[in-house]
Amino acid sequence: MNTCKLHLFTWIGSGKQEEHSTLRPICPTHPEAQLKINVGVDKRLVVTCPEQGEHLVTMCSQVEFEAEKQQARELLEKLVG
């Protein structure tokens, strides 16, 4: 697994275009934790880490999340070659 740090998140993934490949944001403090993504009342995504009393990682729109996920996928694909 490779990682890349972008504006909103640090992402981890295989960088391969396989259907079962995983690409997900990680907590900068607890990279092994599985982040929780909920929709807030203002329709923004609220991304939290369940470790140490559940803390906020960031908030963003669905559009921002998907755009950065695509950017991370492209960067990780270049790393893998």
Descriptive keywords:
23% helix, 6 strands, three-stranded antiparallel β-sheet, single chain, globular, 81 residues, alpha+beta
Short note summarizing the structure:
With 81 residues, this protein is of the alpha+beta class. The chain has one helix spanning 62-80, and strands at 2-5, 10-13, 23-26, 36-39, 45-49, 55-60.
Give an account of the 3D structure.
There is one protein chain. The chain has one helix at residues 62-80, and strands at 2-5, 10-13, 23-26, 36-39, 45-49, 55-60. It is an alpha+beta fold and 81 residues long. Strands 1-2-3 form a three-stranded antiparallel sheet, with helices on one face. A three-stranded antiparallel sheet has the order 4-5-6. It has one domain. The protein is built from one helix and six strands, in the order ββββββα. The mean pLDDT is 90.
